[in-house]
């Protein structure tokens, strides 16, 4: 797969996440954050079972123990980011939640450098900050006084950045992206399920009320989008992946305008332009330099 195709998969993942943000928020009217998170990841894990089985049968060698441990680590990062985000949504505004989560676009290249000494192409740094600036502008250009929910969103952005880095480390060498996706969903479902049993008491009626959000969150925002991320990241860097995945804020605003009739303010349009420019820069600038060197 070419890097362009991989980045287009990541862009599609961002689109699916952007459309699912409303479902993630409205589900809180019926169930608690632990219940929604557990149900969403359980649906996603079940959906991936047949694909992971087929992938395992086609594999030339069994999955080594270090790779299995790495897959579990990815699941731990995913669970931490998802539950912090879901709890934070309860006590912060949608605007704050949207662009504070988007901090992962800045955290990813920084943490990748600190943890892996991975030096991204120079264009990643200005593009990361441009993408985050675009997310801020899409949210109206400001944030209310930070509270507990806002700090939870910042923490979730750190764990999402770590998840992106971990996927980049383990997805490529193993060649088992579907198994990785299933494992991370199963780990997140089990941990969220334990929290649900201890902290919440969901009823069948409540789950029935939230079933559309749970199905969308499980099948599309989780099973489809995170699997697209896993496949795409086998052929691009974590820093570039974070920038393309940050398009979720752009698509959230566009879907809200098309489906809900919400208007995007002029400052929000500028934010869309910044995000789009950041994605074009990380895709085109490295190719332009390579072309000049070899021509």
Automatic annotation (TrEMBL):
Which Pfam families does UniProt cross-reference here? EamA
Answer yes or no on keyword rRNA-binding.
Answer: no
The UniProt keywords, alphabetically, are:
Cell membrane, Membrane, Transmembrane, Transmembrane helix
Which residue intervals define the domain EamA in the entry?
5-138, 148-281
- Coiled-coil ranges from the UniProt annotation: none
Q: How does it sit in the membrane?
A: Multi-pass membrane protein
Q: Which domain of life is it from?
A: Bacteria
Do the record's keywords include NAD?
no
- So where does this one cross the membrane? 37-57, 69-91, 97-116, 123-145, 151-173, 185-208, 214-231, 238-258, 264-285
Report the subcellular localization.
Answer: Cell membrane
Q: Name one GO cellular component term.
A: plasma membrane
Q: InterPro entries attached here?
A: Diverse_Substrate_Transporter, EamA_dom, EmrE-like
| Protein name as it appears in the record | Drug/metabolite transporter (DMT)-like permease
Please give the organism: Aurantimonas endophytica
């Amino acid at each position: 797969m070419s890097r362009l195709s991989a980045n287009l998969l990541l862009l599609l993942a961002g689109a699916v996440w952007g459309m699912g943000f409303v479902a993630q928020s409205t589900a809180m009217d019926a169930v608690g954050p632990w219940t929604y998170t557990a149900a969403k990841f359980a649906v996603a894990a079940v959906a991936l079972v047949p694909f992971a089985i087929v992938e395992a049968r086609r594999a030339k060698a069994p999955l080594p123990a270090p790779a299995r441990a790495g897959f579990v680590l990815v699941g731990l990062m995913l669970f931490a980011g998802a539950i912090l985000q879901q709890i934070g949504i309860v006590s912060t505004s949608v605007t704050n939640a949207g662009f504070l989560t988007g901090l992962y676009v800045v955290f990813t290249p920084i943490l990748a450098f600190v943890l892996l000494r991975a030096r991204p192409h120079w264009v990643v740094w200005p593009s990361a900050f441009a993408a985050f600036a675009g997310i801020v502008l899409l949210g109206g250009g400001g944030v209310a006084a930070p509270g507990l929910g806002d700090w939870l969103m910042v923490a979730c952005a750190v764990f999402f950045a770590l998840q992106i880095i971990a996927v980049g480390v383990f997805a490529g060498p193993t060649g088992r992206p579907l198994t990785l996706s299933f494992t991370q969903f199963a780990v997140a479902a089990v941990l969220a399920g334990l929290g649900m049993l201890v902290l919440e008491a969901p009823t069948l009626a409540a789950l029935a009320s939230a079933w559309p959000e749970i199905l969308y969150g499980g099948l599309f925002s989780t099973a489809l989008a995170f699997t697209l991320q896993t496949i795409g990241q086998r052929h691009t860097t974590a820093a570039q992946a974070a920038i393309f995945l940050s398009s979720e804020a752009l698509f959230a605003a566009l879907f809200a305008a098309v489906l809900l009739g919400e208007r995007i303010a002029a400052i929000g349009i500028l934010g869309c332009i910044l995000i789009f420019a950041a994605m074009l820069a990380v895709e085109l600038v490295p190719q332009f330099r390579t072309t000049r060197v070899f021509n």
